[in-house]
Amino acid sequence: MESAMTGSATGTVRLGTGPRTMLVRPGVGAAGHVVQRTDLATHRVVVEQASLILVEDGCKRIHWSGGECVARVGEALSVQAGEVVDFANTPGRSGTYRALWICWQPELLMAINALHPSHGPRVARHAALDEAFRASFHRAFDGMDGADGLPASVAIHRLQEVLLWLGERGFHFPPPGPVSIGQRVRRLLSADPSAEWSMEQVAHETATSVPTLRRKLATEGVAFRELLHDVRMSHALALLENTDVPVLHVALATGYASASRFSARFRARFGYLPTDIRGQNRGHRR
């Protein structure tokens, strides 16, 4: 996977070298470029961090417990951290769905939004975006790369500028709330989805005992193995949507030594094959 994963002097990790790209800048946030050529519906995806998605071709439909939102070319969708959504990416006339997204570290939201008592809906559509808003979004996206030596402080400033633009439109993300044990475990597992995680190791990392961890997770309606599987599949989905990394490498990055076994588990979770996302199985839609 080394050929598809590169780093920079600023600490940014770039996954993918083609049209699809995912950027992770520690302490700042993350960004990605999704390219999809098939119309697929994806269910029960946990949004880990507050995110803003700008559609550049096609349309994106998000369904959540509070309703449904659809964004078309030039429009954006915001999703608050912790939301569980179903979504569909529909290609446009070009035959491709394309979107850029950025997300914020929880700490960055505090500085801008903590003083606002009212907050926007869990999922919101942002239409009629003017050129200045879109330019601010693209600057924030480019700031995640760090390839030109852009300091982290400037990259953070660019992300905060987008929050200010949203505020000018009357929208604010809520400040981060208390973190549940399930969220703590999910974040821990997400740091290395390929690792052979055990309940004993996770209990140690979260300063608790295995029985207590099992009981607390049960109160949130989740079992450890189910949570680990979901984290791995969510990471695989992100890699498939945002990078051109081969399926075998995606399998290895999510703890599977076999591409066929990984593909079977992925299909069982999402209802389609990993290759369907990139349009490699045209005519084999679900």
Automatic annotation (TrEMBL):
<dbReference type="InterPro" id="IPR009057">
    <property type="entry name" value="Homeodomain-like_sf"/>
</dbReference>
<keyword id="KW-0805">Transcription regulation</keyword>
<protein>
    <submittedName>
        <fullName>Helix-turn-helix domain-containing protein</fullName>
    </submittedName>
</protein>
<dbReference type="InterPro" id="IPR018060">
    <property type="entry name" value="HTH_AraC"/>
</dbReference>
<feature type="domain" description="HTH araC/xylS-type">
    <location>
        <begin position="183"/>
        <end position="280"/>
    </location>
</feature>
<keyword id="KW-0238">DNA-binding</keyword>
<dbReference type="GO" id="GO:0003700">
    <property type="term" value="F:DNA-binding transcription factor activity"/>
</dbReference>
<keyword id="KW-0804">Transcription</keyword>
<dbReference type="GO" id="GO:0005829">
    <property type="term" value="C:cytosol"/>
</dbReference>
<dbReference type="Pfam" id="PF12833">
    <property type="entry name" value="HTH_18"/>
</dbReference>
<dbReference type="GO" id="GO:0000976">
    <property type="term" value="F:transcription cis-regulatory region binding"/>
</dbReference>
<dbReference type="InterPro" id="IPR037923">
    <property type="entry name" value="HTH-like"/>
</dbReference>
